Amino acid sequence: MSLFDILTGKARREEEARLAAIAEAEAQAEKERKAEERKAKKEAKKAEEAKKAAEEKTKKLDPKAQATAAGEPYVSVLSMELDPENPGNGAFELDWNDKFLAQLVRAGYQRKPNEEESVIVDRWFQDVCRNIIMENFEQEMADPEKRAANQPIQRRDLGGGKAEFS
User: Fold this and answer.
1) What is the residue extent of each domain of the chain?
2) Residue 11: what pLDDT?
3) pLDDT single digits (tens) 135-150
4) C-alpha distances in angstroms, 96 versus 70, 110, 114, 127, 147?
C-alpha cells in the first residue's frame, strides 16, 4: 500500500468495505437460517396437524375399523338369537377382520385350502365354547358336594318287589 493510499484513506475504506461485505453476508446467512427455521416449524406443525387429524379420524371409526387400521385382530359378537321355546338353542352372529382370520389360520383352524372364512371362524368358536364347558365341568367335579350330586344312581333289583339304590 502506498503512502498516497494511506493519506487518502483508501486502505481504510477498502477495509470498511470488506468488513461491511462480511457483515452483510453474515446477516444474509442469519436471514436464511431463520427462514429455514420458520419453514421447518411450519412443516412440523403441518405434520402434527395431519397426525392429529388421522387420530381423530381413527377415533371416529367403529371398533372393527379401528382395529383394522391399527393392524390388530378383531372379533365381536354382533347378535345372539335364542329359541323362545327352548332357550338352550340359539345362534351367535360374529364379525371379524382379516387379521383375526389370519391369526386363526396360523393357529391351525384352517383344515383345507380355500376353506370359507365362516367355517374357520365357526371351528374356532366351537372350540371356545367347548373349552368353557370343559372348564365348568372340571370346576364342578373339583367340588366334592357337586361331584356326589352328579354320580349316577345305581338300581339293583333284589326281587320280591324290592330294589336297592346306590
Assistant:
1) 3-58, 66-149
2) 72
3) 988 888 777 776 666 6
4) 14, 15, 18, 16, 39
72, 98 in Cβ contact below 8 A? no
Q: Look at the block and give the residue holding cell 347378535.
A: 79
How many whole angstroms from its chain centre is CA 72? Answer: 4
C-alpha distances (whole Å) from 29 to each of 16, 24, 33, 90, 122 are 20, 8, 6, 77, 69
Among 123, 53, 62, residue whose Cα is nearest residue 97: 62
Sequence-distant (≥ 6) Cβ neighbours of residue 121 within 8 angstroms = 75, 94, 96, 100, 101, 104, 109
Region 6-18 average pLDDT = 77
What spatial distance separates the first Cα and last Cα of the chain, rounded to whole Å? 132
